[in-house]
Structure formats: structure tokens, C-alpha cells
């Protein structure tokens, strides 16, 4: 059984650490900083960093790769269409990759960046989605179009409901504040806001989430809901197509 922990980095990043206690091998996802990973390895003698998985090219996701590879010899896998430091394996959509004995499948999810990918393991129902899907939110559109990001989110939303969502930023509370502005009468959303507020006050992280919870509370996955459509139309949507509703929500959130 793989154990997954979060290594905090910078102000609000998480580097996900996957561990196989039987082999004492581990892997990390999106190590923007090598220091937290090397510190963990230093505190756990005998463990080997075997793999580094990368979702996209932004510096806060790749900044630690070269040092980690130099010090551990870890294999680096990342999107084929983006410049990833020290990459050994270039990954494309639907391509499998084995990590710690688990076969992950690559999902192309453009929008935040054009080559952004996610890693999905069906049996364990794990999703490492970088900056595409956040808890109660989604990433900004730095390179892609609203249509691309909406399509990427729809692809992730179609995964089984109990799929655990490991995104890479602690944005949940601010995302929930926006979600409540969109759907103030959503009782499940109200409960989630109260719960996450309590967690954060206690110093607890808000992740992972899961797909079922996101479908119930994340406005970017709820573009077909009447309340979300109405709110988006009050904030610039010129028609009620899901892509237009998404675009209006994203523009609203950018200035929220």
C-alpha cells in the first residue's frame, strides 16, 4: 500500500511524496524546491527517491528537479510538449508509466499551460492534477483557452467519484469563498467552507479532495447548474453554453 504525504514548499505549494514502505522507494510530484524532499530523505535513512513526476513547466513545480536528480539519480518524467529540466521520459496523453509498482495513466489537461498533464491510477483511484483542478477551484489560464480548460475539467470530472484529488496548492479556503459568491444557497458548500475553515485554523491541510465533493461544491465543475448559470450570466456570460459559463466564472474569479 502506497503512503502519500504532503511536503510543504514556498507559501502554499505541496510536493506530494509517494512512499512504498516495503521497498523503501519513494517518488515525488512537482518538486518546485529540492530542499523539503532532501530534508525528508535525510530524516529517513535507507530510502531511495526513484521517480520525479511533473505536471507542467512552471518554476514552482520544476525548480528542484535538477538538484534532486543530481543527488539521487531519480528518473524524471513529464509532459512531452513542455520544457522540463532533466527529463528522462516524455509523456503524452493516455501513455502509461509505472511508478513504485503502480501503473499510472497520463491525461492531457491543457488550459493552465498548453502541455499540462495529470497522472491517474484507476485501481487506487489517485489523481495528481497539478494546477488544473484545485479543491473548489481551477487553475488560471496562462496559456490555454477557456474551451480547453473546460474540456480538461470535464475529463477529470468524469473520473469515479471517490477518486482522490491531489492538487499542488493550498488554495481551498479562498476558492470556497468564491464558490459561495457563486452559489450562496448551496448547503454542501456551506458545510465544506465551515469544515475547511476549522481545519486551516488548526493547521491542518485541506487536501486531498475527491471528485464527488468537487462535483457538489466546485463551481467550475457545475456549469450546468441553474444557480451557477444565473450567477455567471450576471458576470458577463453572453449565452448559457457550458464553455461560456466557465469562461465567465474564470474571468470573475480572476478579479474576485
Q: How many angstroms does the end-to-end distance come to?
A: 41 Å
- What order do the helices and strands follow? EEEHEHHEEEEEEEEHEHHEHHH
Number of strands: 14
Radius of gyration: 18 Å
Task: Give a quick account of the main beta sheet: strands, pairing sense, barrel closure.
Answer: 6 strands, mixed
Sequence of strands across the biggest β-sheet: 1-2-3-4-5-6
Structural category: alpha/beta
Estimated share of beta-strand residues:
25-35%
The level of helicity is: 25-40%
- Provide the low-confidence segments as ranges: none
Quote the average pLDDT.
98
Number of helices: 9
> Can you tell me the overall shape?
globular
How would you characterize the overall build of this protein?
- The strands form three sheets. This protein has a six-stranded mixed beta sheet with strand order 1-2-3-4-5-6, with helices on one face. Strands 7-8-9-10-13-14 form a six-stranded mixed beta sheet. A two-stranded antiparallel sheet has the order 11-12.
- The termini are far apart.
- It has helices at residues 34-43, 59-62, 65-72, 146-157, 172-182, 187-201, 211-217, 226-233, 242-254; strands at 3-9, 13-20, 25-29, 48-53, 75-79, 89-91, 96-99, 102-108, 117-121, 126-130, 133-134, 137-138, 164-167, 209-210.
- With 256 residues, it is an alpha/beta fold.
- Helix 4 (146-157) packs across helix 9 (242-254), helix 5 runs antiparallel to helix 6 (187-201) and helix 8 (226-233) packs across helix 9 (242-254).
